[in-house]
Amino acid sequence: METMPPQDPLARERARRRRAEQVRRRRIVLGVCVLGLIILIIAIVVATSGDGGAAVTTTSSSSESSTTSLAAATYTADLSGADSVPAVRTDATGSLTLTYDPDAETLVFVLDINGLTNPSVASIYEGAPASRGTVVFTLFDGPTEEGLFSGVLARGTIEETTLTGTLAGKTIGDLIALIQAGGAYVSVGNSSHPEDAIRGQIL
């Protein structure tokens, strides 16, 4: 029977150290892989939550950003036949008051008429003075007030979903921006003048 030569103690120590070094390297590699995986998961979670936040911001930008940044304000229009296109000879007058409340994010209107016969419709138009514009919000759509009318013809709150024309699908902030730019007027029609019986620019 062949006997194995005794191993050199130094060789055994070197082999033990090599094994220990291999184990240590494997542990380091495993630790780096686990750490990389954790970092990747965190990055995916952060990116996903970031996209969600961006989506919310984008969605709100069309409806909130243009309104929440607005301060409380009141806009008015004085209506007369002289401002109608073409001008109308009438003693009838009127006034529109728009009040924006930034806390409630509402735009409330009151349309008051004095001495107009048979008022039948009233709308806010996009348009400059002395021009013919397009309706962006209907304030009053009948039924016709028969006879000589004085008093509040319409009151309420302007909702974004009821905006029309160039403001369809847009926000109250967009309507206010149009008003602030001097590009909106109110027109009241009656049986003899379906449009612009009396009219006034909103300021």
Characterise this structure.
This protein folds into two domains: 8-61; 69-201. The N and C termini lie far apart (115 Å). The chain contains three helices and eight strands; from the N terminus they run H-H-E-E-E-E-E-E-H-E-E. The chain is α+β, with helices and mostly antiparallel strands and 203 residues long. The chain has helices spanning 9-61, 65-68, 172-180, and strands spanning 73-80, 93-101, 106-117, 119-126, 134-140, 148-158, 184-190, 198-201. The longest helix has 53 residues, at 9-61. Strand 7 (184-190) and strand 8 (198-201) form a beta hairpin. The strands form two sheets. A four-stranded antiparallel β-sheet has the order 1-2-3-6, with no helix packed on it. A four-stranded antiparallel β-sheet has the order 5-4-7-8.
SSE topology:
Elements: H1 9-61, H2 65-68, E1 73-80, E2 93-101, E3 106-117, E4 119-126, E5 134-140, E6 148-158, H3 172-180, E7 184-190, E8 198-201
Antiparallel strand pairs: 1-2, 2-3, 3-6, 4-5, 4-7, 7-8
Order of H and E elements: HHEEEEEEHEE
Q: Termini separation (Å)?
A: 115 Å
Rough outline: rod-shaped
How many β-strand stretches? 8
How do the strands line up in the largest sheet?
Answer: 1-2-3-6
Number of helices: 3
- Helicity level: 25-40%
- Overall pLDDT level: 87
**Class by alpha and beta content:** alpha+beta
User: What can be said about the biggest beta sheet?
Assistant: 4 strands, antiparallel
